[in-house]
Design brief:
35% of the residues lie in helices and 19% in strands. It has a seven-stranded mixed sheet with strand order 4-5-3-2-1-11-12, covered by helices on one side. A hairpin with a 5-residue loop joins strand 11 and strand 12. Helix 2 runs parallel beside helix 4. The two termini are 12 Å apart.
């Protein structure tokens, strides 16, 4: 837990803006291809603080749309990784500043912490147009009620054997490390980005079974809360499915799949993918010291 002085200082610097009436969200930014207009956007599992985080891609994606509400559905900052080794790029600061600017200009941002950024639960509450909560209920434009949560609550390894989850996390990051060098070779040969780690996960029977059990558990929980659908992240597997009377939406991630969910103004929800090019890694920004407030939340 944070002491009161650290908590107050962190809140003041991370969330300095009061509620805003203006909605000039672009603040002088030039959109890449639009911009598109969405009622709601959901992103998750950015894992800032790791070499595999594609913050540069997210920054490009953020320039392509405007929205009334933006959900960050957990694992935004990877405090597990920061506690092992501090890796912080300028693009991570740029993402933080861009989201704060959107909030200042009127976008409602809802941040739901996951297991990798569970320390953020120490500062639950509302900060201007930013609200931090453990889960949320979202009403779509066509009248459906959706439960929004990260999803780690339904991961038995996370809940009962955290040491094993940490070990698995190390193995996963090793796979991502191999994935980066594999794709550098593909880029030199003129091929587009291809996720080796996602391919391995799709071929391992236990991983496939885990995803299936996870989806069913989340859907059951949504049904218990009288929701007509559920939006989650956690498993890095983007999807839109229907389980009888419940719609299941998974945001994917910004490590491998580079995906987001968007709600149009008629209530239709769509899965969108930012197309990473073979040379995208060349645009990565330089390393820089992590903000003191982020390190304080990590307990460092």
């Amino acid at each position: 837990m944070l002491d009161n002085v650290t908590r107050q200082r962190t809140e003041k610097i991370l969330f300095p803006y009061p509620p805003a009436e203006e909605t000039n969200w672009l603040d002088g930014e030039e959109p890449l291809d639009g911009p598109h207009r969405y009622r709601t956007v959901w992103i998750s599992d950015l894992h800032m603080g790791t070499p595999s985080c594609n913050a540069e891609g997210l920054l490009e994606f953020l320039k392509t749309f405007r929205c009334d509400k933006l959900y960050i559905v957990g694992d935004f900052i990877d405090f597990w990784a920061l506690r092992r080794s501090v890796h912080w790029r300028q693009s991570f600061n740029d993402v933080l500043q861009k989201l704060l600017r959107r909030a200042r200009k009127g976008t409602q941002i809802v941040y739901i912490p996951g297991n990798h950024d569970e320390f953020v639960t120490n500062i639950l509450g509302r900060y201007g147009n930013i609200r931090i909560c453990e889960n949320d209920l979202h009403d779509t434009a066509d009248g459906r009620r959706l439960l929004v949560l990260h999803g780690h609550e339904f991961d038995g390894v996370i809940r009962h054997m955290k040491w094993l989850a940490l070990l698995g996390d190390l193995g996963y990051h090793l796979l991502l490390f191999l994935n980066r060098y594999f794709n550098r070779l593909r880029a030199r040969l003129g091929y587009d980005y291809w996720s080796l780690s996602a391919f391995v996960k799709g071929k391992v029977k236990n991983a496939v079974n885990f995803v299936s059990r996870f989806e069913k558990a989340v859907v059951k929980y949504a049904r218990l809360h009288d929701a007509e659908g559920v939006v989650c992240g956690h498993i890095h597997t983007a999807a839109i499915k229907r389980f009888k009377d419940i719609e299941y939406y998974n945001t994917g991630d910004w490590v491998e799949s580079h995906t987001a969910l968007v709600e149009h103004y008629d209530g239709t929800i769509e899965l969108v993918r930012w197309r990473r090019t073979a040379g995208a890694s060349a645009t990565r920004t330089h390393e820089t010291p992590a903000p003191a407030e982020v390190m304080a939340l990590a307990g460092l």
